[in-house]
Amino acid sequence: MSQSRVQQLRAEILAHDHRYYVEDAPTVSDAEYDRLFRELVELETAHPDWVTPESPTQRVGGAPVSALGEVRHSVPMLSLGNAFSAEEVQAFDKRVADGLHASGALAGGAEAAYLCELKLDGLAISLRYEDGRLVQAATRGNGQVGEDVTANVRTIKAIPLTLRGDVAGVVEVRGEVLMFRQDFERLNQEQGEREQKIFVNPRNAAAGSLRQLDPRITAARTLRFFAYGWGQVDHMPAAQTHSGMLDWIASLGVPVNAHRRVAHGADGLLAFYTEIGEARRGLGYDIDGVVYKVDSLSAQRQLGFVSRAPRWALAHKFAAEEATTELLDIEVQVGRTGAITPVARLKPVFVGGVTVTNATLHNEDEIRRKDVRIGDTVVVRRAGDVIPEVVAPVAELRPAHAALFVMPTQCPVCGSAIERLEGEAIARCTGGLVCAAQRKQALAHAVGRRALDIDGMGDKLVDQLVERGRLTSLADVYTLQADELAGLDRMGPKSAQNLVEAIDKARRPSLGRLLFALGIRHVGETTARDMARHFGSLEGVLAADEDAMMGVPSVGPVVAKAAVHFLAEPHNRDVLDRLLGECGVEPVPEEAPAAAGAVLAGKTFVLTGTLPTLTRDEAAQRIVAAGGKVSGSVSRKTSYVVAGEEAGSKLTKAQELGVSVLDEAGLIELLGDSD
DNA sequence: GATCCTCGAGTTCC
DNA sequence: CTCGAGGATC
Questions:
Q1: Do residues A520 and A563 lie in contact, with contact meaning Cβ atoms separated by under 8 Å?
Q2: Does residue A524 lie within 7 Å of nucleic acid chain C, judged by its CB?
Q3: Which of A85, A517, A631, A674 could form a disulfide with A626 if both were Cys (CB 3.0 to 4.6 A apart)?
Q4: Which of A285, A379, A364, A388 is nearest to A327 (CA)?
Q5: Which residue is nearest to nucleotide B14 (CA to C1')?
Q6: CA A658 → C1' B6, Å?
Q7: Going along A191-286, which residue ranges are E strands?
Q8: What is the Cα–Cα distance from A41 to A582, expressed in whole angstroms?
Q9: CA atoms within 13 A on the CB side of A222
Q10: pLDDT tens-digit profile of A145-192?
């Protein structure tokens, strides 16, 4: 036995790996493969000096680490615009074709060529090869900075440790790590036998496996990889097209999914979508749609980017997954304002990646409109892929005993009458703050982040204090002492002390926040701030009659009446007097809106998605500080949409309306001019 | 009076 | 995120 046998074994194993993972056409049995592998292990054990890092035996995984390091991507990893309908795809094709016709890159009347591929439901990673050797692997993270998962990725057999052929310099391959359904089911079975965590779906299992601190765990799980793009490439091949680049990546021995082809025009794209939709179930792994990319690389460069999303690519997602389940019961919840919301209790059902057990039914009319009855089998989906929604009952499966929902006449929490005013969709508990549910939520609202912002005072704590009769009104919050808090559930002396300090800080809220905290019907954050600015002081607000109130921008007769009525209520006056008196609360006047000359004056922004460094609140604050406005929905009047990761329908809407889109860097640039 | 634009309120799951 | 509804605008 010699070193040459070792090399021969390695070559054979690598060839088998390639046929199995890349070509999807194995030529040996698993047993035969195992025999070769064991022989190699034996030889290497006998001759440790023959072992190289690229040997297939070195995929077992090194020692665990305490945390994953960070990696900055040399070329940012992109996100994609989304489409859910044929119309949106047609609009995308038109934008691309118009853009390319205008520059003469596409002959008049000719259709644009696109590479179509699967949108795999896994985790995006970037593999960095230097002189053909895998040196680093990183998750996508926020697109700029990801996590270093090199040690784990080295254990994935589908990913070559060395590229085929002579590749000099840096080649970064980007693609998706995923778990095939079969491997997922086997893993869960094993996890169950070992009484370990069961994964809800292959995506979570892949993510959990890849982000392990102990690479040996990753090594024990079967992950797959398919490349769909590239980052830094020092020596670009001659390819002029995206499809050509993918062929080149495949020729390096990296798996590229076979379900890809070049199509022309919107019709070609939609045909691919339909075809994949039909093949979806048989794929053996999860996809959440397909992706279209303008094939010509020079055309891609011309089209460029909006925000972080390329104008030359589009993810066409499958409609939200639907499932059917049984509607066990319809219960009602009481909201902060007394709104009675019927909620469907469902037999747990797995849909769109999570198990759904509850879904809102909004109100009585909605239930009637959908004609859902208790005992029905219903169709459930996750609206906008997040919030579960009951779509409709399955008429054929309605049991004889199916019962209509009857709105209770008394509040389930306090027993007060429930009434529904003429012309309103919502029924309400009339108990007001007598109702424990309303009192709890009113208090939780008042201490919440957007109102008095008392850190450490969450729903759970408010619940406990209300139940013990320690909190009846907002004024009571300011009388809480550290020693009485310390005894409560999940409250040590340290947390209690922190909370008391947080309460003390809340003695000087801005007037707008204080007004918002009161929970006056129709008076939200914006209206409260407008009121604070208009009157300048709490005394001014309290002295206003309905006419004076209507002078506040965005306040009309309905809001004015609600506010004046609320502030005249003896009970509410009482609480305010206590706050200002014994509690020592001193509202500070709202800052004046930025001067008319401020850079962003007159500009309206809409924020969507997750920004790389700022939270959405921080971004909003900075926009307001520069004189801009932040709104919740996109319209023709919107000046800019600031889009981050996973931007959803608002980005789509912005593109439809032709509203300018910024990324965080673009926003900061705009803001920068103001300093 | 109709239409568009915002704001407020409620909600699910991990 | 979505719906309902109040307010502004034409």
A1: yes
A2: no
A3: A674
A4: A379
A5: A354
A6: 20
A7: 224-233, 261-264
A8: 78
A9: 14
A10: 888 999 899 999 899 999 998 899 999 999 999 998 888 888 888 887
